[in-house]
Amino acid sequence: MEEVVFVEFLEVGKQFVQGKIFGRIESVKSIADLIAPLSGEVVELNKAVCDSPEAINRDPHGAGWLARVRIEKPEELKELLSYDTYRQSLKE
Questions:
Q1: What is the dotted CATH code of the domain comprising 4-91?
Q2: CA–CA–CA angle 14, 82, 1 (5° rounding)
Q3: Contact at 8 Å (CB) between 16 and 39?
Q4: What is the pTM of this model?
């Protein structure tokens, strides 16, 4: 997603379920739901991203982080793709 202009998350302390919506992200061209990859609880939000969402585009693996979460079901981690596997799937 390019040119992110708005980000919305569940509040700190809120629970979320794997596969369900836990936030929303908007760019100048589209809006997308953020789907929870795991079940858990929001423990911290990146307030800098909420105030300046363009940080997601500038530095998505650094300053553009979205939220810290407490994982409720560690067994769900087995269902996630590794970074390399995910990148490879994008090429296919």
A1: 2.40.50.100
A2: 65
A3: yes
A4: 0.80
